[in-house]
Amino acid sequence: MWRGRKTCSASAKKHGIPILPRFCSGWKKRIPNPMAAPDRFNRLAPVYDALMAHVDYDRWFAICHELSSLLPPGFTHLDAACGTGALLERTRNAGWISFGFDLSPAMLRNAATRTAAPLFVGNLEAIPVRAVDFITCLFDSMNFLLSPEAVRRALQAMAAALKPGGLLYFDMVTELLMAEVFGNQSWVEPVGDFMLTWESRWFPESASCLTRLTRDGAVVFECEEKAYATNVILELARQSGLEPLAVLDARAWREPARDTTRIDYLFTPSPSRLDKTQVQRVIEKIRYNLS
Question: Beta strands 97-102 and 76-80: pairing type?
Answer without folding.
Answer: parallel
